[in-house]
Amino acid sequence: MAQSPPSASPPSPPSSLQSPTTPRSPRSPPSPPSLHHVRSPSVASNSSTPTLIISPFDSPLRSQSSSIIDEKRHHQDQMTSSIRSSSRFMEYFNEEVAGAHSSLYLLVSFFTSGLIDSVAFNAWSCFVGMQTGNTIFAALGFSGQPLTVHPNAYLKSITSIFAFCAGTLFFSAMHRIPCWFDPNPTPSRRRFILIVSFTIQTTFIVAAALLIQLGFVSSRPSVSGAFSSGNHLSDLPNPEEEDNYKDLIAIALLAFQSAGPVFFSRVLGIIELPTIVLSTLYCDFVADLYHLPTSLRNKKSWYSFFFNDERRQFRRLGSILMLFLGGLVGGFMFRSLVGMVGALWMASGLKGMMVVGWVLWKAEKKPQEEGGV
């Protein structure tokens, strides 16, 4: 059987009719991310994929150095802020406090003086503030009088006098620290000095109260002929045979701190209010009563009468009443359950409140502020 010839394959269309095929270029690796994407000028505007050029400023080294600079600036800002805060802090505590109405501190000091002296005399037969009475007690002791007291009782008065003088030297030197090298140093009313002064007074009262609280010193009513009267924890079996010389420690502490308010009255320039004695105060108050009718006739208003014309008189009267009130409160507290130690804790609390008061007290106006500059 004859085989059919192989069919010829249809001719391929001409090359011009073939669909053009564009060879695909291999995919380029993705470019690293950059913050600044810049279109290459060599690429045509109708190109769908712009070419990205990495800026040399976007390197990791540049970013790291920028963060270091930012951290340094932040640290410098913090240091500057801290220095400014410290400067304001020092300026606040170095400024002079205003003298207006500061006599209120003297009135409170009169009360605490009466409170402490009343319980001290009731337990130890001596004063820790009024050194005039102690001087008489010491003189009587050297002469062997009175016969009803212990032969060495005058040591309490001597201790109180010397401790008071030491406290005066201390507080006087402390108030003169800012102008210590001046030819004529004058006492200062700087805030930090007053805070330290009244803090020391508070600390000494607290120390004396702790000695009494722990039973180291006498705290019961004084016994005739005995040096010590016994503490609140236990009675002495034979008071006339027991000489507890630790009482002198508490006396010295309280006498030392009592010099602080006295010198503070000198700092304020109110010498007429010494906070511990009333003899000159009684004299000045009674002697100036002759001016009272004239002040009443010439008064412009009652406010002017009380706070301008007769301000000194009412301040004297208030000081007398506050010392008396302090002694009265001390007497009632001594015979109550709280006893002598309760009165001392009350006095220390009042002193502590005065410390807080000096922290918040307004400053003295500077000359430019007063002149409106």
From TrEMBL:
Under the heading InterPro entries, the entry gives:
DUF1275 (IPR010699)
Question: Compositional bias (Low complexity) at which positions?
Answer: 15-25
User: Carries keyword Methyltransferase?
Assistant: no
| Membrane found in the keyword field | yes
A Pfam family (short name) is DUF1275
Top-rank taxon of the source lineage equals Eukaryota
Q: Which UniProt keywords apply?
A: Membrane, Transmembrane, Transmembrane helix
Q: Looking at the record, which segments are called Disordered?
A: 1-82
PANTHER family recorded: DUF1275 DOMAIN-CONTAINING PROTEIN
UniProt name for this protein: DUF1275 domain protein
